[in-house]
Design a protein that fits this description.
Blueprint: H1 3-16, E1 29-30, H2 33-43, E2 49-54, H3 60-66, E3 71-76, H4 79-88, E4 95-99, E5 103-105, E6 108-109, H5 111-122, E7 128-134, H6 140-147, E8 156-162, H7 163-170, H8 180-186, E9 189-197, E10 202-203, E11 210-217, H9 219-223, H10 228-238, H11 246-253, H12 260-269, H13 283-296
Parallel strand pairs: 2-3, 2-7, 3-4, 7-8
Antiparallel strand pairs: 1-10, 5-6, 8-11, 9-11
Helix pairs in contact: 8-10, 10-13, 12-13
The structure holds S-adenosylmethionine.
S-adenosylmethionine binds at residues 25-30, 54-57, 61, 75-78, 81, 101-103, 134, 136, 139.
Organism: Aeoliella mucimassa
GO molecular function: 16S rRNA (adenine(1518)-N(6)/adenine(1519)-N(6))-dimethyltransferase activity; RNA binding
Protein name: Ribosomal RNA small subunit methyltransferase A
């Protein structure tokens, strides 16, 4: 099907079932089939893979993935789209469709989703989880970052997301996009932007550019973080004002737990001068620094 045919097919089917794409659910459908294929091939799917897709939409990406993976668990919040995709996916017995909000809240995946994913992973030895999705942009950040805290750690995540978010994920120290999210993702994964895409490859067109990002979890990096939740919370709190001097950020984050003298002592051990700013610290330095703080304040939390 050409782009134009895909678009008119989609418009017609959605009209028949009385659906107007809703921007609140990030309903921008990928109509360039070459790019749909590129997402699937970037996922590098094989017979041991359980794919998690958030946002079934019309099910076109789902169907392609079901031909390559062992199982696909796909989640759709919209009841009308869920019905439409159910028709499209009737012939695939390795697709489990869930009509749910994929997130329980901003900080947690919906446990029902993880339960089904766990069942599929346990059905055969050697299975691994891969997220492959054209994500709804309004929930892309919590989906990517929360999946790293779930009981089922993914092997990799390939997703279409807002270009700005992709740039934040791969950003390096000193750059305008370097943030707590960059540190959280890069501390555990190898992250790369596969492709930048203009609004015209979607229907309806979003207001922003998009990108396909490929995030491969690196088990060695993950194991090098002794307390991931502590690291996550500490980095988040000192990056709240990342351009400020590090000393002010740490003192404020650790108040009630560490005195200014204790903070200064750690800064000195790290050779951080008074003009060190949070935004200049790379991931490895942040890991070492967090461990020194954690040794003095193990009970701290946000
Ligand atoms: C960008 S569209 C992608 C649709 C389809 N996979 C495609 O590639 O064209 C995002 C989809 O996610 C669904 N969605 C939005 N928020 C969701 C949530 N919290 N949980 C599950 N699905 C959600 C939307 O209804 C929409 O179908």
């Amino acid at each position: 099907m050409s782009e134009r045919q895909t678009k008119s097919f989609l418009m017609q089917r959605l009209r028949e079932i009385g659906v107007q794409p809703a921007s609140r659910h990030g309903q921008n459908f990928l109509i360039d089939l070459n790019l749909v294929e590129m997402i699937v091939s970037s996922g590098d799917l094989g017979p041991n893979d359980v794919v998690l897709e958030i946002g079934t939409g019309t099910g076109s990406l789902t169907a392609l993935m079901a031909q390559q993976a062992a199982e696909v668990v796909t989640v759709e919040i919209d009841g009308h789209l869920y019905e439409l995709a159910s028709e499209q996916l009737l012939d695939f017995d390795n697709v489990t469709m869930l009509q749910l909000d994929a997130l329980k809240n901003k900080n947690r995946f919906n446990p029902q989703v993880m339960e089904v994913v766990g069942e599929r992973l346990e059905e055969a030895p050697g299975r691994q989880l891969k997220l492959v999705a054209n994500l709804p942009y309004n929930v892309a950040t919590p989906i990517l970052s929360n999946l790293l805290t779930c009981e089922h750690t993914p092997h990799s995540m390939v997703a279409t997301i807002q270009k700005e978010l992709a740039e934040r994920i791969v950003a390096q120290p000193w750059s305008k996009d370097y943030s707590a999210l960059s540190v959280w993702m890069q501390s555990q994964c190898d992250c790369e932007i596969v492709r930048v895409m203009p609004p015209s490859v979607f229907w309806p067109r979003p207001k922003v550019d998009s990108a396909i990002i490929r995030i491969v979890v690196n088990p060695e990096k993950r194991e090098a973080i002794p307390d991931r939740m502590y690291f996550h919370q500490f980095v988040k709190s000192i990056f709240l004002h990342r351009r400020k001097f590090l000393r002010a950020n740490v003192t404020s984050a650790m108040k009630k737990f560490l005195s200014k003298e204790q903070v200064d002592e750690v800064l000195e051990q790290m050779n951080f001068g008074p003009d060190t700013r949070t935004e200049q610290l790379d991931v490895d330095t942040l890991l070492t620094f967090t461990e020194k703080i954690r040794a003095l304040a193990p009970d701290w939390s946000l």
